[in-house]
Amino acid sequence: MEEQVRLGIIGAGIMGTGHATNLTAGKVPAIRLAALCDNNPEALDKAMQSFPGVPGFADADALIASGTCDAVLIATPHYFHPPLAIKAMEAGLHACSEKPIAVYTLAAREMIAAAQKTGKVFAVMFNERTNPYYAKVKKLLEDGELGQITRIHWTATHWYRTQYYYDMGDWRGSWAGEGGGVLMNQCPHQLDLLQWMFGMPETVRAECRIGRTHHIEVEDDVTAFLTYKNGVTCIMTTNTGESPGTNRLEVAGTRGRLVVEEDSIRFTRLCQDIPHHLATARAAFEQPERWEIKVPITGEYTAHCGVLSAFADKILGKGELIAEGAEGISGLMLCNAMYLSSWTGKTVSLPINDEQYWTLLQEKIAASGYKRR
């Protein structure tokens, strides 16, 4: 096999052209941009002008069958991720999907099955896993530095979007075009990191508010309550209409507290385990002795380029993926569970009922103001 992977990008929108720019700038040496595709003539023409000499295709099937590529990166609207990834893998190409890998878990299972059947490399663009701050948190948790985790609180209100953003494409902000709102488009990163660091909860209860600050038919404001098997609770809040927003993860344990915010990790470490201190303290308001620790951060945030570099290395037999495609179903299930809870007004147990979710989603799609072409 060549030392460079020939990559075709399907979808020449904001993300697709961003990836193409990184590749042509040489930021992922193991990948060569081999083709671009978009079924929108204006978008394709613009891409051809921006990346002269790169073959352009108006049809994804034609790109997949062209022989110009070893792999594809799918950067289309969400509903097209599963069928395109499956077609590519069945045609002998490796596939990397932008997040989310699918809109609903049934489709994600079909993608995973196709990868297993064909043996092709299947990756998902969870670039936040390359963030050294979250990698450090995961390591601290695995090493037991916080003792037993007792509480998680993630405020992700930094996803501010104007009405103009939603009006840029008629598929945005609709059930039929996008498959959801902030949970489906912006927050998959936090949902993936949540399960990556803490595992999957047992139950989910959520309130998803439709068009609270925008003229859209999907949610732009969510508060969710997650419960884990060992009694740990998590509150997640996210929206696209708050400014200034924040991205703040707080994790409490029996040996201290971590706060990740504004490119820093604040670790308040207790000298005694809380259960022991609670039982042995001889004063009503005594607090455990604590240390404020400056957590050292090493490593580079390689973002999208890091994910693509690992994708190429896996194809070339030189390394492992940042995020296997099969792992994408976990964050998606959290997303689907939050919708299902909000739609039914009930607490949802995991794993969700895939068929129930799909059926209710079809009702949303049928009533949607956007009709997919």
Please name the defining characteristics of this protein:
globular; 22% strand; six-stranded parallel β-sheet; 15 strands; 373 residues; nine-stranded mixed β-sheet
Order of neighbouring strands in the sheet with most strands:
14-13-12-11-7-10-9-8-15
What ranges have pLDDT less than 50 throughout 5 or more consecutive residues? none
Fraction of helical residues: 25-40%
What does the main sheet amount to? 9 strands, mixed
| Count of individual beta strands | 15
Detailed description of the structure:
Helices cover about 35% and strands about 20% of the residues. With about 375 residues, it is of the alpha/beta class. A nine-stranded mixed sheet has the order 14-13-12-11-7-10-9-8-15. Strands 3-2-1-4-5-6 form a six-stranded parallel sheet, sandwiched between helices. It is globular, with a radius of gyration of 22 Å.
Please write out the topology:
Blueprint: E1 5-10, H1 14-24, E2 31-37, H2 41-50, E3 56-57, H3 60-65, E4 71-74, H4 81-90, E5 94-97, H5 105-118, E6 122-124, H6 132-142, E7 149-156, H7 163-167, H8 182-185, H9 188-198, E8 203-210, E9 219-227, E10 233-239, E11 247-253, E12 256-260, E13 265-270, H10 274-280, E14 290-294, H11 303-315, H12 328-344, E15 348-349, H13 354-366
Parallel strand pairs: 1-2, 1-4, 2-3, 4-5, 5-6, 7-10
Antiparallel strand pairs: 7-11, 8-9, 8-15, 9-10, 11-12, 12-13, 13-14
